[in-house]
Amino acid sequence: MRKLAAGNWKMNGLTAQLPEVTALIAAHPSPSCDVLLCPPSTLVAAMASTAAGRIAVGGQDCHPKASGAHTGDISAAMLKDAGASYVILGHSERRADHGEGDALVRAKAEAAWVAGLIAIICVGETEAERDAGKTLAVIGTQLAGSVPDGASSANTVIAYEPVWAIGTGRTPTLPEIAEVHADIRARLTARFGADAAGFRLLYGGSVRQSNAAEIFALPNVDGALVGGASLKASDFGAIVAALSAA
Ligand code: PGA
CA 159, CA 150: separation in Å to the nearest integer? Predict the structure, then answer.
């Protein structure tokens, strides 16, 4: 399995930031993990051109339909056409800001595959859910509802992102991360059999240079989905280096 360092630029980035991609590639010309950046959709084509296949480029969302009267939305085929090979789906900010539920996320994943994109399906508990001891149950429900039956290690990546850890500088303890990742692996095994071992399970939520190596050393952690620390080549490059060394 090739591990995956994925960066999510969220609603950040203008063409003036594209040199970060050039700098990242120059600093890490042949990492032993896959490297992906997901810029805002306005930058997908330009970033793919800049990256020239040296790193992968992805979208942050797509519509479940291939085309049609959906003003402001973007289809998976459009992302693919612009040079994307991945798309993040069901990020907690989409779930919270746009009311996206599991059934919609599932439909988007199926649309992503039709277009030839790899779906990164995000799950994660809120702080109240963790405090109530519901973390594994919540994630189990999200996995059951958001991951389509057609998922495979080739077309799907799962990202565990505790909502309360995103952009806060707070992370679960290492045993807490390991517990959730083991539970996700077990649920995938129950559903998909032997192929579950090949699914890449990313941890996301306040991954930094300072904590990346210890998180990457955990069993069933096959990479990271990184927000704030993916914007600068120097920050993200350190995380790429940590994953390459893991
Ligand atoms: P963060 O975001 O690294 O800034 O916490 C992670 C994410 O939302 O993917």
Answer: 18
Mean pLDDT of the chain: 97
Catalytic member of 91, 100, 125, 129? 91
Which pLDDT does position 180 carry in this prediction? 98
Closest ligand 1 atom to Cα of 229: 3
Asked if residue 135 has its Cβ within 6 Å of ligand 1, the reply is no
205 lines ligand 1 (CB under 6 A): yes
- Nearest atom, ligand 1, residue 208 CA: 3
Summarised one tens digit per residue, pLDDT across range 66-93 is 999 999 999 999 999 999 999 999 999 9
**Superfamily of domain covering 4-245:** Aldolase class I (3.20.20.70)
Alpha carbon distance 43, 18 (integer Å)? 8
Q: Identify the residue whose C-alpha is closest to ligand 1 atom 2.
A: 227
- Crossing angle for the helix pair 209-216 and 233-245, nearest 10 degrees? 20
Domain extent listing, the chain: 4-245
Examine the residue annotation and report whether 91 is marked as an active-site residue of this protein. Answer: yes
> Is 70 an annotated catalytic residue?
no
CA distances from 170 to 11, 36, 131, 162, 216 (A): 21, 23, 15, 10, 17
Model pLDDT, residue 25: 97
